[in-house]
Fold this sequence. Notes:
The protein is of the alpha/beta class. The chain has 2 domains: 14-43 and 309-418, Aspartate Aminotransferase, domain 1 (Alpha-Beta Complex); 53-307, 3-Layer(aba) Sandwich (Aspartate Aminotransferase, domain 2). It has helices at 17-22, 49-62, 72-91, 106-121, 140-149, 166-172, 195-204, 224-227, 252-257, 292-308, 310-329, 358-367, 380-386, 402-418, and strands at residues 30-31, 34-35, 37-38, 100-103, 127-131, 152-156, 177-183, 208-212, 231-235, 246-250, 268-271, 276-278, 334-337, 348-353, 370-371, 373-375, 391-395. The chain is globular.
Amino acid sequence: MTLTAQSSSTPRLPYDINRIRRDFPILKREIGGVPLVYLDNAATSQKPVQVIAELTRYYRDHNANVHRGVHTLSVEATELYEGARAKIAAFIGASDQHEIIFTRGTTESINLVAHGWGRKHLQAGDEVVVSEIEHHSNIVPWQMLRDERGIVLKYIPMLPDGTLDLEVARSIIGPKTKLLSITAMSNALGTIVPLQELIPLAKAHGALVLVDGAQSVPHMAVDVQALGIDFLAFSGHKMLGPTGIGALWGRMPILESMDPFMGGGDMILNVTMEQSTWADVPAKFEAGTPNIADAIGLGAAVDYLSALGMDEVRRHEIEITDYALRRLADVPGVSIFGPMDAQQRGGVVSFELEGVHPHDIGQVLDTKGVAIRTGHHCAQPVMAALDVPATARASFYIYNTTAEVDALASALEAASAFFGVRA
Ligand code: C6P
């Protein structure tokens, strides 16, 4: 019986979109009698049969608690769970698999850093720098810490084209900066943040760097060593994996210096009635029974992406985003937000249809089988900067085709005609 799923050295397969689509059963669905066109991948991706099968296989053949038993099933479950950790470490270029902490996702990973590192190491007056294009999960935990501890929160502003103002970044990252916590890619606009320019600014002042990789790890090759960062937060469900699982990667000495986030089983070395001591990293941060099955499912998702090759994933995304930018620009009344060069953005296209509320667009598109997200995308400061209450957002992934972009454009043309929009 094989315990591990495919290894991450799985041979590369040619990028065959029809074969890829066959791996995703949900793509065969119809919505109201028309084929589903799933363009809400920045919210969550669909899951291939390989991931679904791995979850089933785990529950059918190996289910037990990890790190606790000497019986065969517990040993197998532990081996699979730790095997997934090793795959995820290799996927992001971590040198030590113990630097991967399983969390529920990006939100929990960033909160873990705010609690475990921020509360331990930051004093009143210390500065944390974020940007105006962050998701709420990279703003709110720092605001909470500011209100509790008196740290200072500074924002790198957004320029009208959705990119960051690097001039201002140079002026606000300084000797008081203790952490630069920045997204690699905006979920609301698709903007790819020039990390290679921002990271050295923080490092020059001895600050740590946390990258919110929720939208980058699923879509492009990310190597934590090459980036020279200290923390990386990401979510499994946006990269073909199950919901409720994600990871925080951190440099081992920093993780060792941090306090635990939660107390309970599995995270201790010794407990007396008076006090407790902590287990080594990563157990120190994984209190309680972990999400074993979904961690193993995420390992299978990493295998799937590794077999495709992240450079191929990115190449496909640039191609489809470039096509979408050109195709949507031709729809009467559509204005696109964010950079217009597909090389400068991920597979996210946020737009408005003149005079039509994004929720109405979303509903009309749903009647045509086209699933997009509408709203503030948990990035209200971006909406404020754009001076809109919400946007409509189409987001792409490995299985989306140019024909699906055409379906989106046709549905938008129909909506445009229905609402009487003028070009
Ligand atoms: N963005 C979107 O539709 P969680 O919810 O913890 O898996 O991920 C939070 C998160 C953090 N940072 C970025 C850049 C993100 O895009 C997200 C999730 C989804 O855009 C749901 S709001």
